[in-house]
Amino acid sequence: MIRTQPAGRKPTSDDPRVLRSRGLLQDAILELGLEGPVDGIAISDITGRAGVSRSTFYDHYTDKETLLADAIERHALDAGISLREGGFDDGLPDQPPQFLIGYVQHIADHAQLYRNVLGAHGSAAVHARLTRRIATILAEGIRLLGEHAPVVSGVPIEVDAAALAGAMLAVLTHWLERLPDTPAPVVAEWIWEILTRE
How far apart are CA 145 and CA 151, in angstroms? Predict the structure, then answer.
């Protein structure tokens, strides 16, 4: 069965060989991303680390940016992290929800990788993918909250969510680069205060 894929990623099937090749490529770029800035990673570095040919890379991806974005997303999902967990049926809690603490802790556990990916020499594609993903989740949350306590605003929900997603990633990036000794739960509190500030 062929599935629709984001631009840069070629259509795939559920064939175990396809999944294995993608997994090898994603593991390789994550290892390389842990070792240094991602803008210096070449396709030959990825294929050499993965033990596959260059043509195998291009069978699955058109560029390394999309590969890295896929790998980062899979990395978080493999760790059991989903920003979609935990609804707000009873309104906004005073403290950060567990899913947010878990997500920030996941980033803390892999700080060097995320520092290399989100930093100045990181990946614009990964940053954009994370921003879109977080903005989508935040927009859903804003709509859900609006069902319980409607808020009149001239700002469209998608614009509000995009602004908040950008703020969240800015906090994460600043923390990784400038305040790395701050515990993840404290960073989650910072993010939650920004997200819920009226």
Answer: 9
